[in-house]
Amino acid sequence: MNDRAALDLLVAHGTLTRTRLGELTGLSKPTASQLLARLETAGLVRAVGNVTGRPGPNAQLYEVNPAVAHVAALAVDELGITAAVADITGTVVAEHRVEAEAMAEDVRHRTTGLVTEAVDGALAAAGLPRSALHRTVIGTPGALDPRTGTLRYAPHLPGWHSGTLRGELAGALGTPVAIENDVNLAAVAEQHVGAARDAEDYVLAWIDEGVGAAIVLDGRPLRGATGGAGEIGYMPLPGAPLARGGPEATIVPDGGGGFQRLVGSPTVLLLARERGIDAPTVTAALAAAGRTPGAGDELFAELAARIATGLAAVVAVVDPALVVLSGEVCQAGGERLRALVEQEMTGLALPRPQLRLSTVEGSPILIGALRTALAAARDTVFDTA
Question: What's this model's pTM, rounded to 2 decimal places?
Answer without folding.
Answer: 0.91
